[in-house]
Amino acid sequence: MSTNAPSPRSLIGRGSYLEALRIGEILRKETVGGILLVIAAVIALIWANSPASESYFALRDFKIGFEPWHLELSLGAWAADGLLAVFFFMVGLELKREIVAGDLRQISKAVVPVAAAVGGVAVPALIYAAINWGNPETISGWAIPTATDIAFAVAVLAVIGSHLPTPLRIFLLTLAVVDDLMAITIIAFFYTDTINTTALLLTLIPLALYAFLAQKYRRLFGMKSAAAWFILLPIGFAAWALLHASGIHATVAGVVLAFTIPVLHSTKHGKHTGGPGLAEIFEHRFRPLSAGFAVPVFAFFSAGVAVGGLDGLASALTDPVAIGIIVALVLGKPIGILAATWLTSKFTKATLDPELKWVDLLGVSLLAGIGFTVSLLVAELSFGLGNPANDHAKVAILAASILAAVLASILLGSRNKQYKKLQAQEAVDADADGIPDVYQQEQ
């Protein structure tokens, strides 16, 4: 007997086939960046705790630049303020593309990763605040455990879960991108002490010019995207420098500039074509720079901390700052993500994708506890270089990230064989057009 009852909506669906291919390409590139990030962090730790440690800190603190725009900065500051702006530019491009042309343009597909990201930010912040409540010197670090390091997480995923199903991969990437956007919003609103109004207003001039040229680049430069890049880069740098001088953390400029870049290729009559928009072109150009250089160099200058042997390590890990960070990242992240996802399923009456289990979401949620790049940045903003609390926070971030990676590896590693079987079946089911039937059935 047939029934006309509608099938339950999938809580975490596959998304479109083109989206799956695009996500796969992004994750492959981020994997390389994650490996470089880990290598850079390890080198920094070894150097900072070696007999030649003074040379590491001298290099990190070496100042270069020019003062008129408050740009006489140490190499470490250039990495944190400048190179991470490139990273957040990529985050902004990815988020805008997801909203305009990706699966996030559909509210039904966006609500789960967005809700999960909110839970993954709120719960760790509350846990850290609860552990450090009443201490005005350490409570300011509440935002440290809120961010997920997508490059580090994807690098771990590539090693232990190469056959992870597409829905989980999309979920992880989208979650991390939204997570990073919330982190940069927190930085903009909560880690800005004083604002230079003149510099902030002047920022609007290059920003407006940048947005105008970006939107009109086809008409102005034709198909020569290299010309657009060559012209937009110095204008973007001017906006970054003025925002830096205003007192707002300059990495915010990366996201703001990215949001002005058009995602879709339009003709002069305003009609969209199938060609790549400037956002896609810039993604291809800047992702190697971000993943292969900007983030690893930042990790090199930020991860180096003199532990001080076993006694120093024990002292660091027993500090409420470190305890709050570790508990928040390792426990708070998965609790927040899973709780938000479960609540969403109850309110929307959606069910989990048939090939997934809640244990799979737990594994990905543990991966989200790898909070490295942005967490190190927020630690510096919270406590400042040279502050013992900052050093303890760095030790805790490293320890928590390693612990989260190990736990996720154990859990997802046990599921990897099943993932491989599922993907093998999809390949068998593919039609002559090369698109697996499961994607065609969902259209």
Automatic annotation (TrEMBL):
- Please provide the Gene Ontology terms (biological process) for this protein: regulation of pH
Q: What is this protein called?
A: Na(+)/H(+) antiporter NhaA
Q: GO cellular component terms?
A: plasma membrane
**Gene (name only):** nhaA_2
Q: Which UniProt keywords apply?
A: Antiport, Cell membrane, Ion transport, Membrane, Sodium, Sodium transport, Transmembrane, Transmembrane helix, Transport
- What Pfam family is a match for this entry? Na_H_antiport_1
Gene Ontology MF annotations? sodium:proton antiporter activity
Bilayer topology annotation: Multi-pass membrane protein
On whether Disulfide bond is a keyword of this UniProt record, the answer is no
Relate the protein's function as given in its record: Na(+)/H(+) antiporter that extrudes sodium in exchange for external protons.
Catalysed reactions listed for this entry: Na(+)(in) + 2 H(+)(out) = Na(+)(out) + 2 H(+)(in)
Read off the lineage from the record: Bacteria, Bacillati, Actinomycetota, Actinomycetes, Micrococcales
User: Which cell locations does it reside in?
Assistant: Cell inner membrane; Cell membrane
